[in-house]
Write a structure and sequence with these properties.
Blueprint: E1 2-4, E2 15-17, E3 21-26, E4 29-34, H1 45-64, H2 68-76, H3 84-93, E5 97-104, E6 107-113, E7 118-126, E8 132-137, E9 139-140, E10 146-150, E11 159-166, E12 171-177
Antiparallel strand pairs: 1-4, 2-3, 3-4, 5-6, 6-10, 7-8, 7-11, 9-10, 11-12
């Protein structure tokens, strides 16, 4: 590895030359190094999971490019140097977040957040014995963050299970015991 200082020829060059040399910039310094080859170590479980997650995200991103509505939506979220494909991968890589579940009488209010958009919130109500007594989709409130589900009843000792899904289909499930 060599640090390059004051070389006009290499000021603007970045990338790999042949199969031998890589030139890149880190922390404002130009670095020339031997080209790295593939790792000889076996990938860890975490690395394999990350690779799989990225493969699924890339497949989703390719699929949305065929849908003009979704492509336009992701395109609207881009910044400089980004495109709809990049944004779709970013969305598919992260699951939505359930920030809060609260109760107003028999209404279940779910505060859900996703970097892009929460597509649906489903609420299941269980009795004290663990039997599902009610299931339905919540409705998005005016603030764009809270989802409302009007339950017939919220039995004491029971449980409410909330499922939040984003556009790529990532799901986050959270359960709350009723007192």
């Amino acid at each position: 590895m060599a640090l390059v200082k004051g070389n006009i020829l290499l000021e603007l060059v970045r990338g790999t030359l042949g199969d031998q040399l890589t030139i890149y910039e880190r922390n404002g310094q130009i670095i020339m190094a031997k080209k790295r080859g593939p790792s000889k170590k076996k990938p860890t479980t975490k690395q394999l999971e990350a690779r799989y997650k990225m493969k699924v995200a890339a497949a989703y991103a390719k699929q949305i490019l065929d849908d003009p509505e979704l492509k336009a939506y992701y395109k609207s979220k881009t910044g400089p140097g980004q495109n709809a494909y990049n944004m779709a991968i970013k969305d598919a890589y992260k699951s939505p977040e359930v920030q809060n579940i609260r109760f107003e009488d028999t209404t279940v209010v779910v505060t859900a957040k996703d970097e892009f958009r929460v597509a649906a919130v489903e609420v299941l109500v269980f009795d004290a014995a663990g039997t599902a007594i009610e299931r339905g989709n919540a409705v998005l409130g005016r603030n764009g963050v809270d989802w409302y589900y009007k339950a017939a009843s919220l039995p004491a000792g029971g449980m409410v299970k909330v499922s939040v899904v984003d556009l790529p289909g990532n799901e986050t499930i959270r359960e709350v015991k009723l007192e």
